[in-house]
Amino acid sequence: MSAPELVAILERIARLWSELQATPVGDPKHEKLMGEIHDESATYLRLFDLQEARDRSPRAPRAPRVPKPPAAPRHEE
Question: N or C: which end of the chain has fewer CB within 10 A?
Fold first, then answer.
């Protein structure tokens, strides 16, 4: 994962937050956006940690890709 790819994830998170702010709390889309923000943030943190570990240990073998965690259950009202 390169720095531009990490930046792209952060930009997507910022767009999702903007969309969330414009979405009423009772709207089903609000919950969906919150889940997407959570998932994208978790992905960013995992990838950032992997990149940081690679930067600290340049001779270490490249870390395997970390699978995306299962989505949190969504509670529909």
Answer: C
> Phi/psi of residue 43, each to 5°?
-60, -45
The span from the CA of 51 to the CA of 65, in Å, is 11
pLDDT digits (tens, 9 = 90+) for 1-48: 677 888 899 999 999 999 999 999 999 999 999 999 999 999 999 888
**Would you give the DSSP letter of residue 21?**
H
Contact 32, 26 (CB under 8 A): no
Q: Cα separations (Å) of 13 from 17, 24, 56, 57? A: 6, 18, 26, 29
Coil, helix or strand at residue 60 = coil
d(CA 31, CA 37): 10
Cα angle 25, 70, 27 (rounded to 5 degrees) comes to 15
